[in-house]
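pls read this stuff:
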Amino acid sequence: MSHYIMGFDIGGTKCAVLLARVDSGIELLDRIHFSTEAAMGFESVKQKLFESGHAILSRNKITSQHGNADLLGIGVSCGGPLDCRKGLILSPPHLPGWDNIPLGELLTEEFGVPAFVQNDANACALVEWKLGAGQGTQNMIFLTMGTGFGAGIISENILIEGVRGFAGEVGHVRLEKEGPVQFGKTGTVEAYCSGAGLAETARALTRKRQSEGREPAWIRDGLTLEELSAKNISEYADRGDQDALEVYAQTGEKLGQTLAVLIDLLNPECIVIGSIFVRSENLLRASMERVLAEETLSGSLNDCRIVPAQTGEKLGDYAAILAACYPLHLDITPTKEISPKAMEHLTRVCQKYPSLLDIKTAVSDAFCTLRRAYMSGNKLLVCGNGGSAADAEHIVGELMKGFLLKRPHGRADIHSGLQRALPAIALTQHSALSTAFSNDVDPSLVFAQQVFGYGRRGDVLLCISTSGNAKNCVEAAKTARALGMQAIAMTGSKGGQLASLCDVLLNVSSDCTPDVQELHLPLYHMLCAMLEAEFFEE
């Protein structure tokens, strides 16, 4: 069965309704768009949104009434202010009359699936983080730099939203006491670094040149001050017009001031900038970098690359879909191919144990899940009982030190004998905690408690249970999913309760406990060898 997300991209001038398949990565399937006509009020726009939503589901033969397994959820990307946690639209300037609109609740009632409302800058940050220029980073900032200037902040693999989803309103930070005005505030980042701000810088320079007794080329060509925009000024700059180049140089300086604050404050690996920066990076970068070199801590600046957004015209479409994928913990990162060295281990073990050929695809999926976690700086938690507890500890031993390879040194400045590790924790090892918790609270939650304490979004839980029904493993898997972790189950052929709770099921072809355990050994040895080859083999 395929699974789908419906997205609503809501803007002041146009709206789009999207449908995407999210089984493996993300595939945009269909799109309906229409003019917002915001002046007509919320009820008019709501009717068009809902009609378009039903139409796109109908023509793709997807039903959505209450609990349908095909449609997993709905994402909404909309300009703020919003209360993301409550799904409220809070009077955005581009949507007059949208005052405390419970859009998330209304969509859930209409379509019968959970709906999530997200600030468009945050939603776009998720897109560039998962699909664009920020792939593979744990600390990234996305800046809109378009009609307005907003930010979406990814810190330690988490989208920073704040109490109500207002985090990242960088555009309202004041750079100068006096200056152009945006939203009733002078000298803000948005007043200088947005499309409107750049046009206002051009108008100010025009007045200055006129006071000096000469007209800029655009005035001589018949443009009025009101007609100046980032687009037409960039056209003059691309032709080498010195006044236009000066406008962009001034804007680049203000952008550099803004980035210096963000870099010193958050120490990101990457800052991705959209819209104007994508089109005019060549006009902004020199002055931006000059200010950055003067203002920013050199170590933090060296840590950070500043790049244009990569997802282009599809950014808004993907943003609406990602607004639901993120809270639903759907990992839609494109999966890269398995390296030849890792494939050698997969092929060799499957030839030696032919029954494992039945789950070869699942093994590849488990490997890719673990690889993605380790590439993002996350870790593996492993749990099991009896013989499976011994297997959990065995797996940790193979990952935390050299297995088949002599691994490179870890930190020679600490001790030259240390080896690089793939971080893994066996939840079976902590006897004081386990016995105390089992005695004081509930033995069935002993692994879940550790998942709750150790686990973070992006980590992976591996549950080993020959039946797939070990209650403490089942509760651990439920907890992992609630935290936004991926879960893998290693079981016998039926899979038990874990089959429906885990993202990847490795169910070997037996239901006899010792036979299952005998097959689990080469299975996890194969995964450990594949991971070691992927990360440490030259």
Summary: The first strand starts at residue 4 and ends at 10. The chain has a mean pLDDT of 91. The chain is about 45% helix and 15% strand.
